Structures are given as C-alpha cells and as structure tokens.
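User: Can you predict the 3D structure for this chain?
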Amino acid sequence: MADLTQLMENEVFMAFASYATIILSKMMFMSTATAFYRLTRKGPPE
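Assistant: Here is the predicted structure, written as structure tokens:
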C-alpha cells in the first residue's frame, strides 16, 4: 500500500484532494444557507 508521504508528493492526488475539499466546503455552506433562507422565509418558494 502507498505510503502517506508518497501520496502527499503526488501532484494528481493533491489536486484531487484540494478540489474535493473545496466542493465539500461549498456543499456544507450551501446546505446551511438554504436551511437559513427557508426557515427565515417560512418554507420553499411557491
């Protein structure tokens, strides 16, 4: 199995890890923002 230091040196893996972190952060932010918007405006738009 690959060593962690070898994975950290791999540019493709680091690009994947950074983009995955960005996408997961965006998903968490948007779910919180959507919940806040719907709770403060009494439900989904009609």
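The radius of gyration is 18 Å. Residues 11-40 form the longest helix (30 residues).
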